[in-house]
Amino acid sequence: MSITPLTTHIGAEISGIKLTDVNHDQFTQIYAAFLKYKVIFFRDQSLTPEQQLVFAARFGEIEKPHPFFPHAEGAPQVSVIETTRGNPPGESFWHTDMTWQKSPPKCSILYGEIIPPEGGDTIWASMEAAFEHLSFEMQQKLLGQLATHGLHAFEGSRYDDIDAEGKSSVVEKSKSIESVLHPLISKHPETGLLSLYINEQFTLKIEGTNETKDSKLLSDLFSHARNQKFQVRFSWQKGSVAIWDNRCTQHFAVTDYGDTPRRLHRVTVIGDEIFPPQG
Q1: Which of 6, 61, 82, 256 supports an S-S bond with 263, CB 3.0-4.6 Å?
Q2: Catalytic annotation on 251?
Q3: Of these residues, 66, 182, 251, 262, which one is catalytic?
Q4: Are the CB atoms for 90 and 82 separated by under 8 Å?
């Protein structure tokens, strides 16, 4: 097994191993690379939904089925992210998965089943690097503050069903899912490193202020978080796998392939409540 770092701040490719045949010592190395590089990539894998679930469970307990995404047949905890002819992807946003939950996922395991011949890359960014590159004054300003995260971004998307009365399925489901508060600066529960914990898809406002997602401060933070020097870009192939630490990264799906068929399977692992540095 070989581990090759891809950029200064984030990303490594691991080769020479099949994820269906990982022993204890190999998984220990994989997990250490996951923590160090924040997103790790594998090529030439072959995973059924059941095999993907088995491997993902080595990272922790699997999340319940996603409230909006379709799922693989017979495997409700394997979300299907799919583009078909006549059904192109919608607008993409930088995001950290499911921060509208009180305890967002620890990590996600994404498997490429059908990949377009061109386009469809995914980009990840290190939020630890984003924090490190804030000015000291900005770090101090953000420490101890909270932001509201909500389940609003799926309204009007291809995952939203509008009934005959014009009611949105996302709005109806969202009524039972209250917005949550997370610290603007979070502490990683395993490494102790600090991250800028905001994302333009789910962060709505800074609590106790007039700063909303459209205000200058949050807009500037969103822009800072997607600085290219914090990023790694991955070009998918059939059988590729990406595993990312959802506690300290953001990612962005590049939707430059029109309605060319594309199908990926995603499994998420349950995480802990997000803690501030003193937590």
Answers
A1: 82
A2: yes
A3: 251
A4: no
